[in-house]
């Protein structure tokens, strides 16, 4: 104690030797030194510490909806049941959100080189949740056969799952091995094996067509997943389902001891019990698409391996057209669809191994338009536009130049002029000789409308310019009407045609461009959608 006092007194005397401004600077340096040391120690602690979840604890989650029987075959359209079923049941395969691949779960999968034979061998020491030392209940190949062969029964109540296993032969190889043989190669068949396995014994004696009515099993399910069903309680506010961790010889190892799901009839009822919840699943959104989050809660956006997809039936003749399929793909704005339902993320299924950098999977209206035009798909407006483009391309080449549509009463004449540099004296237009104006170096022809030689009929006309030897110099497509209303519609159509051509050439600014989808047919003429 005496030595410490002497040391402090000596430091104090040394400190007094410094001038006032020197002491101030020294104090600042000391403060900076201790602050820097504290920051470095904190950084060292953070970088050197690995957080490891503790075992045990209970998580309580609230959700809105209606609890239905907890059977894996019938939870595809029920969000409330899906989370519970995914914990209680396990499949031969599972989807790993980290690797974004389908991986082994209860079974180890081997696939033949031709992708037609899928052989699964169950892992060792797998048991159902109701197994006890006195009454063991192992997961066997018979349970696998029961789970998937039931889907193939014509009376099975879920047509979607039934379709997935049409043409699949399922055979038992031994007590732990099952073989799935496909008629045609299908490289994504493994995703069908993520369906939770169902034990055979509880359904003995139940007709396949009434599996969805097996309420005893549905409200007291037995699975082989990481959590076992322990109870269902109906309270004044909610239906409460309790799950407890089940010991399995599989990774990953789950740390929570207990998970409780409380299912409420509506969001207001859920809010009345919010203090007793650790999390809320799928909160509603306001008109702006923002989640309505209770106080003390934080919104977390996440994506699940759940996909809504459109598959083309290539057996249909119309969809055998590759250009048509490409046009539909390029013309689908996935982000707009997602935004319309107040979602945020577009997740292309990794099962299809889509390369988002590939132009074929990106939304591009102009490329979609080109693909649809190249296809054999004939919408009325497309057929009309294609015809107008063909006429425009034909008329844009050669010496004949005039408006492609005319309003001309019967008895009147259409004066057509041109240059003598393009044709010689003696040439004819629609079998009518040209008249030369030598002073200006031009020629002219008056085409009649009364009917006779060279006359312009109502509707479409093909005008031919011939040299003196009757060789074709040029031709021109002309449309004539005596109806002022039709002339107005045709004139508007020509303006749309010019706007479409300029849009396709990217001459116009983006906001002024039009596509085929912007057009429709009315009384034989193209109009623009408003």
Q: What is the secondary structure topology, with strand pairs?
A:
Blueprint: H1 2-17, H2 20-48, E1 58-64, H3 79-88, E2 93-96, E3 101-104, E4 107-111, E5 117-122, H4 141-149, H5 159-164, E6 168-174, E7 177-182, H6 215-218, E8 227-234, E9 239-245, E10 258-264, H7 267-272, E11 279-280, H8 322-330, H9 334-340, H10 365-374, H11 380-395, E12 405-407, E13 414-419, E14 428-429, E15 432-433, E16 435-437, E17 442-447, E18 459-466, E19 472-481, H12 484-504, E20 519-522, E21 525-528
Parallel strand pairs: 1-10, 1-11, 12-19
Antiparallel strand pairs: 2-3, 4-5, 5-7, 6-7, 8-9, 9-10, 13-17, 14-15, 14-18, 16-17, 18-19, 20-21
Helix pairs in contact: 8-10
Q: Could you explain how this protein is built, in words?
A:
The protein is α+β, with helices and mostly antiparallel strands. It is 27% helix and 21% strand. It has a five-stranded mixed beta sheet. A hairpin with a 4-residue loop joins β8 and β9. The longest helix has 29 residues.
Describe the structure in brief.
By secondary structure, the protein is of the alpha+beta class. It has 12 helices and 21 strands. The longest helix has 29 residues, at 20-48.
Descriptors:
530 residues; alpha+beta; Immunoglobulin-like; five-stranded mixed β-sheet; 12 helices; elongated
């Amino acid at each position: 104690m005496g030595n410490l006092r002497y040391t402090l007194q000596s430091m104090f005397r040394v400190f007094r030797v410094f001038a006032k401004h020197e002491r101030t600077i020294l104090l600042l340096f000391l403060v900076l030194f201790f602050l820097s040391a504290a920051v470095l120690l904190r950084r060292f602690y953070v970088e050197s510490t690995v957080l490891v979840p503790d075992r045990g604890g209970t998580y309580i989650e609230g959700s809105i909806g209606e609890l239905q029987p907890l059977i894996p075959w019938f939870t595809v359209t029920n969000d409330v049941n899906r989370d519970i079923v995914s914990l209680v049941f396990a499949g031969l395969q599972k989807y790993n959100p980290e690797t974004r691949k389908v991986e082994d779960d209860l079974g180890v999968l081997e696939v033949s080189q031709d992708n037609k034979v899928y052989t699964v061998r169950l892992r060792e020491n797998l048991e159902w949740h109701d197994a006890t030392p006195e009454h063991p209940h192992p997961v066997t190949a018979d349970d696998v056969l029961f789970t998937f062969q039931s889907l193939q029964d014509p009376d099975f109540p879920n047509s979607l799952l039934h379709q997935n296993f049409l043409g699949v032969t399922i055979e038992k190889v031994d007590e732990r091995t099952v073989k799935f043989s496909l008629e045609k190669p299908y490289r994504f068949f493994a995703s069908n094996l993520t369906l939770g396995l169902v034990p055979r014994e509880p359904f003995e004696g139940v007709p396949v067509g009434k599996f969805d009515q097996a309420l005893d099993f549905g409200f007291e399910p037995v699975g082989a997943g990481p959590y076992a069903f322990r109870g269902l309680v109906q309270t004044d506010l909610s239906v409460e389902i309790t799950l407890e961790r089940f010991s399995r010889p599989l990774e990953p190892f789950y740390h929570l001891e207990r998970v409780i799901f409380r299912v409420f009839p509506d969001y207001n009822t859920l809010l009345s019990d919010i203090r007793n919840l650790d999390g809320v699943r799928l909160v509603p959104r306001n008109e702006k698409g923002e989640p309505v989050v209770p106080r003390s809660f934080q919104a977390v956006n996440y994506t699940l391996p759940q996909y809504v997809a459109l598959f083309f039936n290539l057996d249909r003749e119309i969809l055998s057209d590759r250009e048509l399929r490409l046009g539909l793909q390029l013309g689908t704005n996935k982000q707009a669809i997602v935004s319309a339902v107040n979602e945020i993320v577009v997740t292309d299924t990794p099962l299809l191994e889509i390369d988002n950098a590939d132009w074929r999977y990106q939304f591009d209206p102009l490329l979609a338009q080109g693909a649809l035009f190249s296809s054999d798909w004939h919408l009325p407006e497309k057929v009309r536009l294609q015809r107008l483009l063909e006429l425009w391309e034909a008329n844009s080449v050669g010496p004949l130049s005039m408006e492609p549509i005319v309003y001309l009463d019967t008895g009147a004449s259409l004066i057509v002029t041109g240059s003598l540099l393009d044709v010689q004296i003696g040439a004819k237009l629609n079998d009518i000789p040209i008249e030369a104006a030598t002073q200006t170096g031009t020629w002219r022809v008056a085409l009649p409308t009364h009917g006779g030689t060279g006359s312009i009929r109502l509707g479409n006309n093909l005008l031919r310019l011939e040299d003196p030897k009757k060789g074709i110099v040029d031709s021109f497509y002309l449309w004539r009407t005596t109806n002022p209303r039709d002339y107005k519609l045709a004139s508007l159509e020509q303006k749309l045609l010019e706007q479409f051509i300029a849009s396709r050439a990217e001459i116009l600014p983006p906001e002024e461009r039009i596509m085929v989808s912007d057009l429709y047919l009315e009384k034989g003429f193209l109009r623009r959608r408003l």
